[in-house]
Amino acid sequence: MNDHDRDSDHANDNGDHERPGSKQVALAPAGGALTSLAALQKALASVNTAAIIGRTGLPMMLFKREGSGTWGFGQKRTIPESGSKWAVNPLTFKYGYICFGDNNKVVDERLVSVSQPKPVITELPDTGFPWQEEWSVNMKCLDGADAGVEVVYKANTDGGVKAIAVMVDLIRDRINGGQHDGKIVPIVLLEKDSYQHSQHGKVWFPVLNTVDWMPLGGPAPAPAPASPPPTEQPRRRRVA
Known about the structure:
Elements lengths: L2 H5 L25 H13 L4 H4 L6 E5 L5 E4 L11 E4 L5 E7 L5 E8 L17 E11 L8 E6 L2 H20 L5 E15 L3 E15 L25
Parallel strand pairs: 1-7
Antiparallel strand pairs: 1-2, 3-6, 3-8, 4-5, 4-6, 6-7, 8-9
């Protein structure tokens, strides 16, 4: 239903269908409340909310393999500043599947937190297009021109999925090692690498290069610069 259809809904709202003092939301059908509940259950089961609820509202960070391999985020495909540092939020890892239709448009997407069982691909609806594995994680830029920018990095290529999976392994190993001092957030550089494909030539893939770690609460504040020692004032000569 589009906005015009909603605006032109001709349902009568004068209350004539409801007894005075009644608190019913709607009248139960002739079959009773159980029939109504079963019908509602069936209707809601067919509604796909996963692709909507799963949206973060953040700009999307993508890595394009074409050309020389480039990172970019947002609708304008802004290229991150070279050498900028990004914090990977370990609480936001998701995995699942995505389905693209004609003109590379997203038909459906099913992502869940890695704390939940991964969706079973054979149980996903048949959209007429193939499902592809997809992983995602939120990141925040810590310095440079993009400082403060938060994005969701989504990947559905082998190289991209592997880059995120490597982050999961690194964080898991660090937590299990117990020598992290609360610093379990990877700070990464957005880099790239390539390999030679027999048919496609040079193929670029994303690399999240971990250069440091920080706590979930953010980086430690920079220490205040030390105050310079007071300069000794020259003594005045006594005049006789």
